[in-house]
Amino acid sequence: MSEVQMIKRSPAEQSLSQRRAKESMRSQVAMFSLMIFLTLVSFSMVFAHLNDVPGFSKFFIIPTLFLFAAVQVGLQLYYFMHMNEKGHGIPQMFMFTGAMLGFLLPLTFVTIVWW
Amino acid sequence: MDLNTKFTPETWPAHPERATLEAKNKFVGFWLFLGGETILFATLFATYMALKNKGPSGFGFTTQELYTLPLVFVMTMLLLTSSLTSVYAMYHLKSFNFKKMQLWLGITALLGLGFLMLEVYEFSHYVQLGFTFSNSAFSSAFYTLVGTHGFHVAVGLVWITLLIFRNSKRGLNLYNATKYYTFSLYWHFIDVVWVFIFTVVYLMGVIG
């Protein structure tokens, strides 16, 4: 604990840090809206496919669903879990290792493993 | 400096979750755990994708006729919203507002509880239809994947309830800031896994 120093911010510094926190919160809410939007589009596309709306074939929807899922997960990790901030090099290494295996394992199981 | 040292909004560090050596260790350790969890869920996803719609002849269930999208949609909205409420909680953690943080975490827990209740309802509905764990390779893979996620939600609920009550009189300090922060990481991770579950299991399931 000895390495923690208690530093009192001046009123100006305090209001600056509050303003920055509010700004970053605003971008978090914007990212949340984007996630909700992607989710709505994903469900709507599948709904359109089930109701035989022309243009929503399986071969268009499935890759798009995966793309939207990947974007959503990226937003969660980089914004909600703060991986875009400084000091997240090691977390990135862990998560990229996980993501790589997360891609390879299902790929192996559905392609070259014999069931 | 003692772990229980009282801070004020003016003296509260910019990164309370990583302000001490112990906190830094917990932070890195927790991310390692999440990396491991990713691989755990990857194996379960791989098994599910390989065994989907497979089982003994005439076991009688396919993803297309089993899943109902409206329920999954409501569950997704509940969990996604609970992710945002925990972001609000972490905003108040950083601005040293203990009461508001506890309030937002309480809302997060309620949304999580709603999600879990719907999942219990979903599973019991499937079991009534005869889609039990031992029905087929498909059912075993489905319950193991989605059930492991549900178990993680349940663990998260117990975790946050304990944190809220144990620290209710203590207030924020550098000892418990990391604990709250790692919980929020865990909760977002649960949402990350759910994004893949609703895409791979449910949406792709009803497409067939």
Automatic annotation (TrEMBL), chain A:
Pfam families: COX4_pro. The chain crosses the membrane at residues 29-48, 60-81, 93-114. It is a multi-pass membrane protein. Keywords: Cell membrane, Membrane, Transmembrane, Transmembrane helix. It is found in: Cell membrane. The keyword Metal-binding does not apply. It comes from Sporosarcina ureae. This is Cytochrome B6. Signal peptide: none annotated. It comes from the Bacteria. The lineage of its organism: Bacteria, Bacillati, Bacillota, Bacilli, Bacillales. Residues 1-20 are annotated as: Disordered.
From TrEMBL, chain B:
It comes from the Bacteria. Its main location: membrane. Pfam families: COX3 (PF00510). It is a multi-pass membrane protein. It is found in: Cell membrane. The chain crosses the membrane at residues 28-51, 71-91, 103-121, 141-165, 185-207. Keywords: Cell membrane, Membrane, Transmembrane, Transmembrane helix. Residues 1-206 form the Heme-copper oxidase subunit III family profile domain. InterPro entries: Cyt_c/ubiquinol_Oxase_su3, Cyt_c_oxidase-like_su3, Cyt_c_oxidase_su3-like_sf, Cyt_c_oxidase_su3_a-hlx, Ubiquinol_oxase_su3_dom. Belongs to the cytochrome c oxidase subunit 3 family. This is Cytochrome B oxidoreductase.
